[in-house]
Amino acid sequence: MYKHLLGFLFTFAAMFAVIPSHPNAESGFTNNEEVYKFLQGAFQAQVSLSEEERSLEEVNGLLAPYFLETPKKQFLDENLVSENGKYFIYGSDAAHFYIPFFTYSDDTKVVSDKDKIYVFEYFPENHEGPVGYESHYEGVLLEKDKGQMKVAQFLGDKIPENILEKAEKSKQQAEQTTFKAADEPVWINKPAYQISFLLDPFDAFLRSGSMLLTDNRQGVLGLFEHKELDNQLASN
Fold first, then answer.
1. What is the pTM of this model?
2. What is the DSSP letter of 71?
3. CA–CA distance from 226 to each of 51, 126, 203, 215, 221 (Å)?
4. pLDDT of 171
């Protein structure tokens, strides 16, 4: 029983080991997806300024939930134009001070550092299309303002070295965890193992943990093909 209990605890420990780390809870974001959603909203607010003319008050109202004053001013000074008392932005393939075209995938890194969040991505060189570019990083820095995270700085390719190192270390740890998880034991696909879950799920789960404690897969398989299982099948 002690061996099974130990295996049970080991199984749960392995399950929690593969759960990815999250942004700092104090930031207001609980996972990367929430960070992505926020940045997509910020980008959409910028793009919407090219859809129709607005008053300056409306322009500031659209951007205020997403940007601190400095990056907001940089964006507007660079892109905003006025005509007949109304304001709008011309669309462009090479406009400055926009949220980068993140892929919002594993390539988009989210790194928490105290009360700040760095979001960045490495873009390989591309010389196709209207705008070509060399390989480079692009990123933004998020900081809290009156209890709410906002874009505090357009980083461009100036990502701090310690943040790059932290992201690389996190990537290596994730790859190691994925490699271990992908090494699925042979006994998982055995009929005897699967039937045991139908007959007694709790006992089978305990045994699964016990199996993870041994490197002898043939011995593990024998545990589930024991005569005890045959007796259970016969009684049902």
1. 0.67
2. H
3. 70, 60, 14, 18, 9
4. 81
What are the distances in angstroms from CA 160 to CA 70, 111, 120, 179?
A: 20, 11, 11, 29
Where are the alpha helices (H) located in 80-190, listed in sequence order?
A: 161-182
Domain ranges in the chain? 2-16+184-235, 31-159
Q: Which of 78, 97, 111, 103 is nearest to 155 (CA)?
A: 97
> Alpha helix (H) ranges present in the chain?
2-17, 32-48, 56-63, 69-79, 161-182, 191-199, 201-211, 217-224, 227-235
Chain CA centroid to CA 112, Å:
12
Question: Quick one: pLDDT at residue 93?
Answer: 72
Q: Residue 140's beta-bridge partner residues?
A: 119, 154
- 31-159 under CATH 3.10.450, yes or no: yes
* Euclidean distance between CA atoms 105 and 102, whole angstroms: 8
> Roughly what angle, to the nearest 10 degrees, separates helices 191-199 and 217-224?
40
| Averages of pLDDT over each 10 residues, the chain, 236 residues | 44 42 64 97 97 96 97 97 93 86 97 94 89 92 95 97 94 72 53 54 56 48 48 52
